[in-house]
Amino acid sequence: MRKLVFGVSAFAGLLLACTAHAQEITVGFVTSLSGPASSIGINYEKGMNAAYAYKDEVSGVKIKLIKLDDGSDPSQATKNARKLVEQDKVDVMIGTSSAPGTNAMMTIANELKVPFFAVSPVNVPIPADGHPWGVSMVQTPQLMVKVIADRMQRDGVKSVGFIGFSDSWGDLVYNGAKAAEANGGPKVLTNERYARTDTSVTAQALKVVAAKPEGFLNGGSATQAALPLLELRKLGFKGPFFGTPSLLNRDFVRIGGKAADGTQVSAGPVVVTSQLPNDHFAKKIGTAFHESFKKVNGGEADDGFSGYAFDGWVVFLEAAKVALTKAKPGTQEFRQALMDAIYANKNVAGTHAIYNFTPKSYFGVDERSLVVVKLADGKWVYQP
Q: Model pTM?
């Protein structure tokens, strides 16, 4: 009898263990921990560390987090996405550090029908049938540029030169600037490009100086975005510098040095959480983010990128609460329920924005998601 009781107990324990494992939600996270985009990618990882420390379960169900490095290579981002879905059987994906890599992952998400939270801008066609299988946590490049173009107008800047990356991110910023110009914003006098791996932009900067713009709009990101500023100042350009949230990176500040001082950029509120009024939507969740970030990373969050990863986690948690009432993790039904909930949930407050997603767009934020900040002595300062 004792052996029988032991056998039944062991079987029951095994059954419970299998059930618990089946109820585990699996999240795949891809970022760039090496290569040109790593200065941003490391911030995304720190944001994900903060997110997982903030909450590692939902409705009593544990969350398993798998992390992969794409090496700043879009083709590797594609391979990682396929591995996460086909081998690791993830319920949802989050990533990655560059627009090209993120576009690659979104393409896989749409193909394999797995919810995806993009932490960089997305520029791929919306599926003709059904709905997108992902959303982008970032503000649209057009909105990023519009907000800073409005500030240029307020400051009396009527024309700008442009140097940006020779990839989809450069295209997004330039197109946003042209859209702002069409609506009365500053005239864009140049469209110069450079590769993320380039070490010099002298030729491009010379063309900007020759065009004699009143200001300069930066279409790069992170470390490499400092190159045009340094070269323009070296050539004697004295106009003000403007940019998007892609400049909110400590390496940009460090390498840009005095040349970058005074740069104004559109930014998610997370960058200046402590400077926001108490009634701002991002004050409470932003404070929680910064506290969690400091606890697990041992320092302050002084960038905007880590907040995107955190916000993806927040929107995922809210959607998972709903999805768990309709299906079990590890099934396509659960993936569909997650995606449905992402679209159905409204006014989800994050560190960057109040999120409202629909099947008609990858983006779900409005102008409340951006403030203007100015670099002063190496610190970003809120500009009401």
A: 0.80
